[in-house]
Design a protein that fits this description.
By secondary structure, the chain is of the alpha+beta class. Helix content is 36%, strand content 20%. It folds into two domains: 3-136, no CATH class; 185-405, no CATH class. The chain has 13 helices and 15 strands. Strand 13 (382-391) and strand 14 (394-395) form a beta hairpin. It is globular and about 75 Å long. It starts with a helix and ends with a strand.
Length: 406
């Protein structure tokens, strides 16, 4: 279709409704430019799009180009170059960023309109097999005529109406309770992570950024190097197995990958999970600008979670025997580098990591967020600091000691 033909289609969209031939029934009017733009803004402001960079950018671009009459120019390569800044010669088969993004945008649009409060809104859809969006006016509610009710004898009429009214009242109350009841906190916490594809990327590592303390002299200082720690390796494997089982129970597949092998383009494909703190460099990098962040005191070999707003407020775990309390930082937020939703489970030690894993996979603990955090916390970025007391070197019940919502 030429640009001229596309422009004609756009003009046709704002013409007055025409009558169809033969039956005299009016064709429903198509949405106008301003109505489509207003609906696009509502969609982009929803929870399904506001925490991502890729999906809103893609949807906004294809809608705008379609409204400008350039829908025939929305091809995979051109979208890759303009929206995702790929080179003009990039291999679309090796880098399916456009296809993957379009698929996810379709899913999110379907979920948006499946919610009752959006069911009567103007529809923006992305048909399978192309990238030119379609716009449809809000569906018109159809009134279904009710069958005539046979006359009821006066003696029975009042009882019949009472029975009908009682049934309607009970049904209405039940529906209201069902609609008003929020989903469990564990479902709302994990919802942004489950918005992506069938598989969820889980990034882990086995490098331990610590060595046993050495005697300090004027010529030397305690060093911190990266070594393979067998105990840490087993702990990472146990946490990964528990997380994989949890994801499987929710219809997702854990795609495990080492941090050293993960690239930024790989992280851009969808939501991901980071396991580990000082043994996972991606975790420290992603949390570096957040209010609660990770810090390693190389002089005294102490690991900390620090509050940026009040640096004197911190939670520390020395790298030494006899540790009695461990901590973990949990963050579910938009990753600064990719814009994708990220879940970081960063224990200062392996016991803190285990406690963090228990906290986010157990409804008992996540249920506390409704009492401890502000309303609608599930729609925002959140950080949690978890504490666990160690008993005979095993982690105890995780406790929430600090939080931040933004």
């Amino acid at each position: 279709m030429s640009a001229t033909a596309a422009a004609v289609d756009i003009i046709a969209d704002v013409r007055p409704p025409e009558k169809s031939v033969g039956d005299g029934v009016e064709t429903p009017p198509r949405p106008e430019h301003d109505a489509v733009q207003a609906q696009l803004n509502r969609i982009l402001a929803s929870r399904l799009f506001q925490h991502s960079r890729r999906y809103p950018a893609f949807l906004q671009y294809v809608v705008q180009r379609s409204l400008e009459g350039a829908g025939d120019e929305l091809k995979e390569r051109s979208l890759g170059v303009v929206v995702f800044k790929r080179s003009a010669e990039y291999d679309t088969s090796a880098d399916p960023v456009v296809r993957n993004t379009a698929s996810e945008v379709r899913k999110r649009l379907e979920e948006y309109y499946s919610e009752p409060e959006h069911a009567r809104e103007l529809r923006i859809s992305l048909p399978v097999g192309g990238y030119n969006p379609e716009f449809r006016s809000a569906p018109v509610e159809t009134v279904v005529p009710q069958p005539a009710i046979a006359p009821v004898r006066p003696a029975r009429r009042r009882g019949a109406w009472i029975a009908v009214a009682s049934f309607a009242a009970v049904a209405g109350i039940s529906a209201a309770i069902w609609l008003a009841a929020p989903k469990p906190a564990i479902d709302r916490f994990w919802s942004p992570i489950f918005q992506g594809n069938e598989s969820v990327l889980v990034v882990t590592e086995t490098l331990m950024a610590a060595t046993p303390p050495q005697p300090k002299t004027e010529q030397s200082r305690p060093a911190v190097t990266e070594t393979i720690d067998p105990k840490l390796f087993l702990s990472v494997q146990e946490s990964s197995a528990k997380l994989a089982a949890f994801l499987h129970g929710h219809g997702k597949v854990a795609e495990l990958e080492l941090a050293r092998n993960v690239t930024v383009p790989r992280l851009r494909r969808g939501p991901f999970i980071l396991l580990g703190a000082f043994n996972n460099p991606l975790t420290r990098r992603s949390l570096a600008s957040f209010r609660f962040f990770l810090e390693l005191d190389r002089e005294r070999l102490i690991r900390r979670i620090v509050d940026r707003q009040d640096p004197s407020r911190n939670w520390a775990a020395p790298m030494a025997p006899g540790l009695t309390t461990d901590y973990a930082l949990i963050a579910r937020a938009a990753d600064p580098s990719t814009g994708q939703t990220m879940l970081a489970l960063a224990g200062l030690g392996e016991r803190g990591s285990a406690a963090a894993m228990e906290f986010v996979t157990n409804p008992k603990y996540l249920g506390q967020l409704d009492q401890r955090l502000s309303a609608s916390w599930e729609r925002h970025n959140i950080e949690l600091v978890i504490q666990t007391k160690l008993v005979t070197e095993e982690w105890g019940e995780p406790q929430l000691v600090a939080s931040h919502v933004w």
